[in-house]
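Dear H.,

Thanks for agreeing to be a second pair of eyes. The structure we're designing against is below in token form, covering all 91 positions.
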């Protein structure tokens, strides 16, 4: 039997008030954590995003989400990992 290695994110709420100025620093910390996790349990086959990806679903928040997902997959690419994406939206 082959194992499926997965990474789970939940309730991102991208676009929430006050988040914009915090995100650049938090994103770098997230990517550092992913590099450490990769050494323990990567490479991942699947990335699950569940819950609210954006705060309200407005066009600008969706654009920010596209940028974030692009940056996240660049990080995976550097780790020589190309997981599939599965999204289960909230609300």
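And this is the sequence the design step returned. I haven't edited it by hand at all.
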């Amino acid at each position: 039997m082959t194992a499926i290695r997965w990474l789970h994110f939940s309730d991102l709420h991208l676009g929430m008030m006050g988040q914009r100025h915090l995100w650049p620093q938090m994103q770098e910390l997230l990517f550092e954590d992913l590099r450490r996790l990769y050494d323990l349990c990567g490479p991942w086959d699947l990335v699950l995003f569940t819950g609210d990806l954006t705060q309200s679903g407005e066009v600008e928040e969706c654009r920010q989400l596209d940028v974030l997902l692009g940056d996240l997959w660049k990080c995976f690419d550097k780790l020589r990992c190309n997981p599939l994406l599965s999204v289960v939206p909230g609300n």
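Two observations from my side: The longest strand covers residues 46-51. The chain has a mean pLDDT of 90.

Warmly,
E.
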